[in-house]
Give the backbone structure.
Amino acid sequence: MFLAIAACAPGCQLVFPLEDVQDKVAHVPVKEETAGAFDLTIDQRVTFDTTSLLFTGVAMGEAGTATIRQDNADSDLALMRVAKLTVTQNGQLVITGIKPLVIIANTIEIDGLVDASADVNGVSGPGGGRPGMGDPGQGGDGANGDAQGVSNSTSGGGGGGFADGAGDGGRVDCESSSLEGGAAGASIGDAQIALLIGGGAGGRGGLRCPDPPARLGGPGGGALQLTAFESITIGQTGRVLAAGGGGRGGVGSAACPLLDGGGGGGGAGGALFVDAPLIANNGRITAFGGGGGGGGGDGVSSDNDGVDGSTGNALTPGIGGAGRPTKGTFGATVPPTPKRPTVRSVSA
């Protein structure tokens, strides 16, 4: 069987059983569909970069790595092959880089963390949208105010898109006009994860003051595929994550303190595709989106930037940042609808 898990900003998780296909491994050309010859055990923090195909940290064992062209797509994947992948309770496999990652093994056992999330420093997960780079699914920028008008406020950036469910940026209602928030990012994937791709980045917040520059939206969560020819077991302490990052809080500047900067939109959660004849999940497999940043500027305090939105985590979507003071409306939200992965018996 195949089990696919997708997520979309600001935090819905979807689980879908897929129809059997001729290929043994989704997204991977037939000639590449082999497990590795050696076991790999991770019992501390280890980082794998899908761009350089290099590990940072100490792992026991060996993995084969390669860059391949995604099956039926004009994009590349990073491929890791092992005989058995074990992530102990103290182990953390953190995945970075610009390409999605596919891990092929005979068996996979996870009691620690496998993390393809965006990080707190604004870096996208593997294959996720990069803020301000115009990658697919990026949310729209917030609107700027009229310099000659009554309002000097700006609106928030839109949330990044994935399959569906992204939120628009916060709107500002003024005495003479209304400034709409940035539009939600376009859908760039589907529930079945036909293309292994990460979530879209959030849009920039609007800006009236030219210095400092507008704050970026949150980065998109990455794309990760776990394929085992025998079984995948996720223990009670195991977590597999691909969360989107939080948008940066809006700018408040001493140079023009009355011109409030809008907050950046939250990044979409990424894609998690889990594929094996037997899947036993007692942990958490989630890809929640990040929260949007709060509006900045209050015309009084020296520290008047809005608060950054938070990255999603294993339990909840990211939380939006607070404004200084609160102005305008909250951006549109889509309540998360997490579902527990299921296991289907397959006859030989």
